[in-house]
Specification:
Strand order of the largest sheet: 6-5-3-16-15-14-13-12-9-8
Largest sheet: 10 strands, antiparallel
Number of helices: 7
Radius of gyration: 23 Å
Distance between the termini: 68 Å
Order of helices and strands: HEHHEHHHEEEEEHEEEEEEEEE
Structural class: alpha+beta
Number of strands: 16
């Protein structure tokens, strides 16, 4: 009986946090917070309640602002921020979608032509730029309980789960060439993976490449209008299949292991468990070129791209299962010119940080990133 219960815990960990998720829209979330306020629930209790919420629409900036009077403290604020990140690629509430009629086919083509021209002749021709990137990391702890999965280590699966929470931040100087960010971790010596954290080493998507590939794939079409920062933007959906994609992901790092023992759940040794999960592990990057889809937000008058959403389509056997990225672009003055550059990025990932467990079990971990960019300058200035 004890052994069966232990494996039930594993199943729940695999599914967490989604297994207990309460799916709701932003208005329902607001109603829940209002009821909690009326009941005088503590900050800790409200935050715990939010950890089980999964939004079905984007928590926009205006929606988040409307919730602030209902927030009892910092713990709740953190969980609302997590919900904001995880909902970043979803459509906004219907109340925030303009009622403007969709443009006809000719006007849609004209908008895409302007965007293609902008991406190739303006954005991709930006001078080499430098900026300060502030990265914040959030993750849960549904993974093996161990200092590291290094050579000759012994690991025992932990029947615990800590929901997504803030874990770390850092600042780095980054370089953009032709509008594409060059990853600052190229020469980083951190033991990613072994430290129970991943690093994204691949190059972020850029508007020129996305438009070129989605047009070549013939899979780009009208979706809706959406108001972003006071501007009514034309939103197109796109998809790039395996034959057309050049989108390269590079995650560090995941263990390659040779099992030399068996898994025993903590507390099950007396019920027939046999030993610990011992491994000889080497850590390697996960690199692949993957298909993707998403949305692109275009100023219909100028063709300027102000938002780009990318959702990668991983194979079920890949150690990374989800990568949803949203890039919001803003206007910066560099020298005597105004240019549109990345301002804020959210990335939502799900990965399998350790090898499969017996009986086909595995554990997934969520890692969320936000990236703020500031202090843009031309290289060498």
């Amino acid at each position: 009986m004890v052994k069966r219960f232990a494996w039930l815990v594993v199943i729940l960990l695999v599914a967490s946090p989604g297994w207990a998720a309460q799916k709701m829209n932003v208005q329902q979330l607001k109603d829940m917070l209002a009821a909690d306020q009326k009941s005088q629930k503590s900050d800790a209790d409200v935050a715990a309640e939010l950890k089980d919420v999964e939004l079905t629409e984007e928590m926009t900036h205006s929606a988040l602002e409307s919730l602030r009077p209902l927030v009892p403290g910092q713990l709740t604020t953190e969980q609302l921020f997590v919900l904001e990140i995880r909902s970043a690629v979803l459509p906004p509430p219907s109340s925030e979608i303009p009622s403007t009629a969709a443009p006809d086919a000719a006007k849609q083509k004209a908008i895409l032509d302007k965007a293609t021209d902008y991406a190739a002749k303006t954005y991709a021709q930006l001078p080499t730029l430098t900026a300060k990137r502030t990265l914040r990391r959030f993750q849960d702890s549904a993974h093996q309980d161990q200092p590291s999965l290094g050579a000759h280590s012994t690991a025992v699966l932990s029947a615990t789960y800590t929901p997504i929470h803030y874990t770390a931040s850092d600042e780095a100087s980054v370089t953009f060439k032709n509008g594409a960010e060059q990853n600052p971790l190229a020469n980083d010596k951190t033991h990613w993976g072994e430290n129970s954290m991943i690093a994204l080493l691949g190059q972020s998507p850029d508007p020129a490449s996305v438009l070129q590939e989605s047009l070549a794939a013939g899979k780009i079409g009208w979706l809706r209008w959406e108001t972003v920062n006071g501007h009514e933007l034309a939103v197109f959906s796109y998809a790039v299949d395996k034959r057309k994609t050049h989108y390269a992901v590079n995650y560090c790092c995941f263990p390659e292991t040779n099992q030399v023992g068996q898994v025993a759940m903590r507390g099950t040794e007396s019920a027939g468990g046999a030993g610990n999960y011992q491994t000889n592990a080497t850590w390697k990057n996960f690199k692949a070129t993957e298909p993707y889809h998403g949305e692109i937000f275009i100023d219909p008058d100028t063709g300027v791209i102000y938002r780009l959403i990318t959702e990668v389509e991983f194979k079920g056997s890949d150690p990374v299962r989800v990568e949803n990225e949203r890039i919001d672009y803003g206007v910066e003055t560099i020298g005597d010119k105004k240019v549109v550059v990345p301002g804020f990025v959210t990335i939502d990932t799900i990965e399998q940080p350790t090898p499969d467990l017996p009986q086909g079990r595995y554990i997934l971990r969520h890692t969320l990133f936000t990236e703020n960019y500031s202090g843009y300058a031309t290289s060498g200035s």
